[in-house]
Amino acid sequence: MTTMLRQMTTRGTPYLFLLPGLVILGALLSVPLYKVVEYSLYDNVIVERNPTFVGLANYTNLMTDPGYWSAGFNTVVFTVGSVLGHMIVGIGLALLVNADIAPRARTFFRSMLILPWIFTAVVVALNWQLLLNPFGLINYMLQWMGLTSEPLDWLGDPDLAMWSLLLISTWRGYPFIMVSFLSGLQTVPRELYEAAEIDGAGFWHKFWHVTLPQLKPVIFGVALLDLIWTFQLFPLVWLSTGGGPGRATEVLSTLTFRLAFVDFQFSQAATVAVSILIISAAFTLLYLRNEARRL
Amino acid sequence: MIKTRFTALALAAATALTPLAAQAAEIEWLQWFAAENTDGFYDELVADFEAKHPDITVKLVTQPFGKVRESIVTDNAIGVGSDVLGLNMPWTKEFLDIGILEPLDEYLARDDNSFATSDLVEAPLGKIDGHTWMVPLNAFPFVMHVNMGLVRQAGFDAPPATWEELAEQAGAISALEDGISGIGMPFSSQPPSNGPILTFLPLLYAHGGRIMADTTPNFDNPEVVATLQFLKDMNDAGAIAPGAASRTGGVDLEEFIAGRTGFMISPGVHSSSITSRNPELEYTLVRVPTNGETAYRVHGWEIGIAADSPNKDAAWTFVNYLLSPEVNARAAKAANALPGNLAALDAVREGADETLLKQMEILSGDTPVEEMRQSPKAAASWSVMTEEIQAMLRGDQSPEEAAAAVQARWLDLAG
Prior knowledge:
The complex is a heterodimer of chains A (295) and B (415). Chain A is mainly alpha-helical and 295 residues long. Chain A has 13 helices and no strands. Chain A has a domain at 74-263: Orthogonal Bundle (MetI-like fold), CATH 1.10.3720.10. Chain B is an alpha/beta fold. Chain B folds into two domains: 2-139 and 299-360, D-Maltodextrin-Binding Protein, domain 2 (3-Layer(aba) Sandwich), CATH 3.40.190; 140-298 and 371-414, 3-Layer(aba) Sandwich (D-Maltodextrin-Binding Protein, domain 2). Helix content of chain B is 46%, strand content 15%. Chain B contains 17 helices and 14 strands. In chain B, helix 2 (41-52) links the parallel strand 1 and strand 2. The chains are: A mainly alpha (295), B alpha/beta (415).
């Protein structure tokens, strides 16, 4: 009996140390998660003192709501466009700042190029609003170069708003890819490049046949992570366009906020939030599988 | 022995509870007013109140205007709502439906109030569902702010008084040079996305139109269509600043202050920002150009009491203090607005600048209108207006179609 108790104490001690962390994590994650799922099963909550249980009716409504599908489509365009933008600009800049130049210059460029990452969404949105204003710098430059005759309303024209948002998102998000890719570049053995050079490979050949294959797992991992973050991105979109003009840039996260805090339809908002959760969870599983495979 | 112990216990309990009994009631006041008045006026006001009412302490909770509405709703839902609430008239019906507000009829009928209800600005007092729900701390009409320098440069001596003059002068100012616009129209979708209630409604009221028939949406009427047509014509003529669909109220104000816009329709209270931020601007404010009607959109900062407040009497004592003519005059002067208690008008008039005197003239002679307070979903309603006006201005629909679309979507919202 004493031996059993001693064994239990020895084996249980690590779990006791884990307990506070588990309790906090549990409270912070599972309670809100449970509440959101629960809210989505009622006719309305928060503003309704006696909510009625409606089962999956909110989900059925959502499936037939064109606004939801339109926001879903915009979310896919925004997410895929942003991730592609982050990858192309991030990888390109990582290659540039990895070049064999004076160390001081290299440090300077690396520091400068990482700046967009440290600005808050509010600062980024406000700056780009000023730049993209009809009387802003970008329109001035375009007119000065003779590329447009009239100022363009980049954030107010439905045909341009999503492109403008992608530009803002790309500027804000490339540093993460750049930093990840840069750290990956340091791990590629120099011998591989030397061997390629002996075989007569130029810059592009080395990039396609050495760098990219070597960094494929890194690229796949950060792209998935970026996909998960961007898919549920809210502040940058809300602060830059508010989902407009009309609903041209309405994504699922802004739709959730609009339903909750503009329309006071908290249960509908919870339903959209659950749909975002399911899709994000699928991406997260994919990411975890990829990481497990790398290990 | 038992008796002695019982007595000791009772004495101990009484001693322990004594501080509680003597403790001041603490009330919380959630508002955005102090965020727009950064010189500490509201802290001083609260200190003055506490000195006069040692049994009540007031916790001032200040948030930006755009955050207050959602805070009131969510705080109320989880039972941590404030006792006294800073309110905006358009929120009234929404909050009633949720049960956030305490009816004030019984409080207003008290004999020991520091003010007469008949002296209060009338618009926020109007009964909805048979009760009064808020009282006015201050009031200001929507006006048209004018850059007289640009008006003169465009060849005119006086600001426009009619729609026709407005269109003519705004067009002429836009033609002056690149980067200068006749009038700004903030129809951005960005939160709070309320451009139409800032600019379209004041023009509509000055044309004699309305958007509601009691609590029923009534948007597709000829006056609304005429006002939309007026906006579209000005836009097509280049009189409106480019980029209306991405122009926020904040940008509109900044552009006017910077001297790049001839006219701006917004609350009169903005005059203090304009004169303090750009004293060089040749500035004046006038009544929103009319077509013969002298109705204006009235706005103000209102106060209510939370239905769930455990300290309603203490909350009313504070509201009563704020509405007394002396305190109300101070609050109005601090915001460069008109007092909610009209008995304080003379005190406010003393030493008032020209812009405030002009607002007083509008407020005393013209008809005040505020319709959004009857809308069951005000924020969603003005968001819909914004979207349909955007589509009209870019030529995707006619004014008639825009009016019909808003009406249909409003009916949908009303359920």
